Amino acid sequence: MMTKDQYIESLRKLNLNLWMFGKKIDNPVDDPVIRPSLNSFAATYALAEDPQYEDLMTATSHLSGKKINRFTNIHQSTDDLIKKVKMQRLLGQKTAACFQRCVGMDAMNALYSSTYELDEACGTSYHQNFLKFLTRVQDEDLAVDGAMTDVKGDRGLAPSKQADPDLFLHVVERTADGVYVTGAKAHQTGYINSHEVLVMPTISMRPGDEDYAISFAVPTDSEGITLIYGRQSCDTRKLEEYNSIDVGNQTYGGHEVLVIFDRVFVPNDRIFLNGEVQFAGMIVERFAGFHRQSYGGCKVGVGDVLIGATAEAVDMAGCAKASHVKDKLIEMTHLNETLYACGIACSSQGAPTKSGAYLIDLLLANVCKQNVTRFPYDIARLAQDLAGGLMVTQPSEADYRNPATHDYIEKYLKGIASVPTEDRMRILRLIENMTMGTAAVGYLPESMHGAGSPQAQRIMISRQSNMAAKRKLARVIAHVDAE
Ligand code: SF4
Ligand code: FE
Q: How far apart are CA 273 and CA 414, in angstroms?
């Protein structure tokens, strides 16, 4: 496995065509806006080096028998599925941000079982191609970005019916050696911190969409790929002279980028789906299921930090004993643990696919993510309720450091006498960061839209709900039908 330092050094070798705030970024590794996201990703390597987390952070490869980072593992049991969620909660607790590596893990698990079934049905050899890719990822402990979400243009039209054919990524030329693809993937979490990008179709497809039913992996710095950085609320605070207190979470963060593919070449042995439209839906459903499970871990860990920060804030203000305060902290905990319960439940009810790899219970994974579209908002509302207005009205760190204003801030922003004013300012800014600032992207809108927007889960819940069996139960009990 790679150490954290080896991982960071390996990223320096990438030659990404990255743009941010109107400028080309030649050194993303040391860029102050981007670096916190790298630190979060690097935590997936650092914790795997720590013996106390070995059971959660590492696994044994079913291919090589070697010890691997769990983020490159193909789940072989419900125990693996449960440990995945626990690992994600741990990382959420350690970073209070999106640590990004799950998307690739979920994409690899979706493609492993799907390519197996695809080959069985169509006589193709995509699973062999995928095994070759996976072996390299496991042996070299690579970071993989899973790229699903197309920009989609007119949502009412199929990929091949769009006014601009590039609004869904597609094959533009076929040669004896491979294919050329053009299109764009939006909201790509962790792309800049990844060595490889694993591309999948974004929706179920029909005959006529063959050129759009394409899945493959290429290096993230392949020729023809352009990246445009997604900006976040309060991101430029990281560039200010005093950038410790006001950023809220100085060390960790997350990022998303718009990834543009302009005639990118994909060699044949890196293709995992190529025109078999009937299998696009299986890949989408399995990837989405795995990523909906993931949120029952990562968002819970981030929630742990937010609940802790809120408990600190009320202590510092001297109101920890008020009964409504205690009750709101209980409510936050109840909501957070409900999400965890769903993540564990869909894992423990997982089952093997034809390939032998395990898949989560899809109904429960979708229920998990549906709750994630709601509960973090309630938790954040309660955090803001208890933190009080000072969370957003306190002066800047620059004013706190300025001798002309420091003493006033020190004196008048103090809560209980035993707590330094600076500590209180730091905790309040952390709450601001997680509910309104850079980290809120990962905790709130990502809870809403990541792994699919709420309606996508409702469609899956409806499909998996087995309403006919429920009706039958009622009809038998009411003696409408005989047993
Ligand atoms: Fe992982 Fe959560 Fe970030 Fe998705 S949102 S990549 S599950 S940390
Ligand atoms: Fe996500």
A: 61
Q: Which of 58, 95, 102, 202 is catalytic?
A: 102
Quick: pLDDT tens for 393-426.
999 999 999 999 999 999 999 999 999 999 999 9
Q: Give the model's pLDDT for residue 303.
A: 98
Q: Is 377 a catalytic residue?
A: no
Going by C-beta distance under 8 Å and a sequence separation of 6 or more, which residues neighbour residue 163?
Answer: 153, 154
- Give the Cα separation of 288 and 305 in Å (integer): 26
Question: What are the structural domains, with CATH classification, of the chain?
Answer: 4-282 (2.40.110.10), 285-473 (1.20.140.10)
Q: Of 7, 229, 295, 358, which one is the catalytic site residue?
A: 295
pLDDT tens digits along 292-309: 999 999 999 999 999 999
Q: Is-catalytic flag, 446?
A: yes
Ligand located closest to 449 CA:
2
Q: Is 58 in the pocket of ligand 1 (CB under 6 A)?
A: no
User: At which residue do the structure tokens 């795997």 appear?
Assistant: 48
Nearest-atom number in ligand 1 for the CA of 91 is 8
- Which member of 195, 212, 220, 256 is catalytic? 256
Read off the amino acid at residue 394.
Answer: Q
Q: Is 189 marked active-site?
A: yes
pLDDT average, residue stretch 368-373: 98
- Token pair 């989405």: residue: 288
CA of 206 to the centre of ligand 2 (A): 27
For the CA of 291, the nearest ligand:
1
HEC readout, 160-219? HHCCCHHHCCEEEEECCCEEEEEEEEEEEECHHHCCEEEECCCCCCCCCCHHHCEEEEEE
The Cα–Cα gap between 483 and 481 comes to 6
**Cβ atoms 279, 213 nearer than 8 A:** yes
Contact criterion met (CB below 8 Å) for 282 and 126: no
Contact between 233 and 441 (Cβ < 8 Å): yes
C-beta neighbour count of 374 within 10 angstroms: 14
CA distance 156 to 150: 14
